[in-house]
Amino acid sequence: MSFEKGDTVVLHDEHSEYDGQVGEVSQVSETMFGDATYMIQFEDGQEAGISEDAIEAAPDEELGDEDEEE
Question: pTM score > 0.90 for this model?
Answer without folding.
Answer: no
